TrEMBL record:
<dbReference type="InterPro" id="IPR001608">
    <property type="entry name" value="Ala_racemase_N"/>
</dbReference>
<feature type="binding site">
    <location>
        <position position="327"/>
    </location>
    <ligand>
        <name>substrate</name>
    </ligand>
</feature>
<comment type="function">
    <text>Catalyzes the interconversion of L-alanine and D-alanine. May also act on other amino acids.</text>
</comment>
<dbReference type="InterPro" id="IPR009006">
    <property type="entry name" value="Ala_racemase/Decarboxylase_C"/>
</dbReference>
<dbReference type="InterPro" id="IPR000821">
    <property type="entry name" value="Ala_racemase"/>
</dbReference>
<protein>
    <recommendedName>
        <fullName>Alanine racemase</fullName>
        <ecNumber>5.1.1.1</ecNumber>
    </recommendedName>
</protein>
<dbReference type="InterPro" id="IPR011079">
    <property type="entry name" value="Ala_racemase_C"/>
</dbReference>
<dbReference type="GO" id="GO:0030170">
    <property type="term" value="F:pyridoxal phosphate binding"/>
</dbReference>
<feature type="active site" description="Proton acceptor; specific for L-alanine">
    <location>
        <position position="275"/>
    </location>
</feature>
<dbReference type="GO" id="GO:0005829">
    <property type="term" value="C:cytosol"/>
</dbReference>
<dbReference type="GO" id="GO:0030632">
    <property type="term" value="P:D-alanine biosynthetic process"/>
</dbReference>
<comment type="pathway">
    <text>Amino-acid biosynthesis; D-alanine biosynthesis; D-alanine from L-alanine: step 1/1.</text>
</comment>
<dbReference type="Pfam" id="PF01168">
    <property type="entry name" value="Ala_racemase_N"/>
</dbReference>
<dbReference type="InterPro" id="IPR029066">
    <property type="entry name" value="PLP-binding_barrel"/>
</dbReference>
<feature type="binding site">
    <location>
        <position position="154"/>
    </location>
    <ligand>
        <name>substrate</name>
    </ligand>
</feature>
<keyword id="KW-0413">Isomerase</keyword>
<feature type="domain" description="Alanine racemase C-terminal">
    <location>
        <begin position="254"/>
        <end position="384"/>
    </location>
</feature>
Length: 391
């Protein structure tokens, strides 16, 4: 790398106006907690969407070193990144590509070269994958999982179609896992959970019974029915999301996002803030302009309008956002802070120990998954911990 490139990177580090800190020890501790709960079933990890926004290259080796042997991604491109990260760390694991096998998008040779296994959800995919394996000849061939649709109506074989697949069809595709996906596991009282568990068992009454099975996602690991089978596939909970909404979060926070205060200003009662003047001060107010906007992954739904909106935290004290969030900036009302508690150049917490991802999402009118996967790429990213899971 040229001296100029090093200099540019150093300038970027100094100029970062928001810092995303990822605690790899907390990530590993969360995985171990879920693995212990699901034992003796194996505990895998969903690392799609850049490991839910925290970074595949950091998350996958940390989890693999902790003992995770199976990863799930959405796209083959994510699988290639995960495989490269494992290879760089001298580690190995299975990597399943959830979105199916489409030869025109990512050919069989790419799956084979990078050690990726496909998740097959239709007769057409099963046939194309089997034909590609047959044409590939000898050597190590990638395997596959069979996806059965038990109620999501999104991807997967209908239950009755899956039931009557033959051992020959399954064998030629290299099936090593049968899986489905829960629709409403976060609501333990929803009767669809029992229906899906029964449908999955029904699908596996014939040839599929011979194969390891996977049904439970993060919230599924906490269902009273314990539908763990042979492998559970947590995602959101690994990264600090609450798999048991309405109850205390059993997971540790993994990501903290802090942003710089660029300016402080005093405004009189009746002054407006932000685009279109959607917020009006009802008293003389002190406002802080923060270097964080929707280009950084802050949902526009978190805008402080009509008495609602998101908050930032200053030493644990909540400060509501006011006015519409801009592309690069947001504004917080800090009138209630003691004099001298905040100055230009200080940083405030947007996401973290005080700004819990689920509570933050609720204030923005969205879900915690969206908050995580949209964490912006122009933040400086600091990874802490060594992945021992001792957080």
């Amino acid at each position: 790398m040229s001296g100029s490139a090093f200099s540019d990177r150093a300038d970027d580090e100094r100029d970062a106006q928001a810092v995303l800190t990822v605690d790899l020890d907390a990530l590993v501790a969360n995985w171990r907690h879920l693995a212990a709960r699901a034992a003796p079933a194996e505990c895998g990890a969903a690392v799609k969407a850049d490991a839910y926004g925290i970074g595949i290259e950091a998350a996958v080796p940390a989890l693999a070193r902790a003992g995770c042997l199976t990863f799930f991604v959405a796209h083959a491109s994510e699988g290639r990144r995960a495989r490269a990260a494992l290879g760089a760390a001298g580690l190995g694991a299975r990597i399943f590509v959830l979105n199916g096998f489409h030869p025109d998008a990512a050919g069989f040779d790419s799956y084979r070269a990078h050690g990726l296994d496909a998740v097959l959800g239709s007769a057409e995919e099963l046939r194309a994958w089997s034909e590609a394996r047959a044409a590939a000849g000898g050597g190590r061939l990638p395997d596959a999982a069979l996806h059965v649709d038990t109620g999501m109506n999104r991807l997967g074989f209908p239950v009755e179609d899956a039931r009557f697949l033959s051992q020959a069809e399954l064998g030629s595709a290299g099936i090593t896992l049968v899986m489905s996906h829960l629709v409403s596991a976060e609501d333990a009282a929803d009767p669809i959970n029992a229906r899906q568990i029964a449908a999955f068992d029904h699908a596996r009454e014939r040839a599929l019974r011979a194969y390891p099975a996977s049904l439970a996602n993060s919230s599924g690991i906490f269902l009273p029915a314990r539908p763990f089978h042979d492998l559970v596939r947590p995602g959101f909970a690994l990264y600090g999301g609450n798999p048991t909404p309405g109850r205390p979060n059993p997971m540790l926070p993994v990501a903290t996002l802090r942003a710089r205060v660029l300016q402080l200003r005093s405004v009189p009662a009746g002054a407006t803030a932000g685009y279109n003047g959607r917020w009006t001060a009802d008293r003389p107010s002190r406002l802080a302009t923060i270097a964080l906007g929707y280009a950084d992954g802050v949902p526009i739904g978190g805008s402080g309008i009509d008495g609602r909106g998101a908050e930032v935290f200053v030493d644990g004290t909540a400060c509501p956002l006011v006015g519409r969030i801009s592309m690069d900036l947001s504004i917080a009302d800090v009138t209630h802070l003691p004099a001298g508690a905040l100055a230009a150049g200080d940083s405030v917490e947007w996401l973290g120990p005080h700004g819990d991802v689920d509570a933050l999402a609720a204030r923005c009118g969205t879900i915690g998954y969206e908050i995580l996967v949209n964490l912006g790429r122009r933040h400086r990213r600091d990874y802490i911990g060594n992945g021992t899971g001792t957080a």
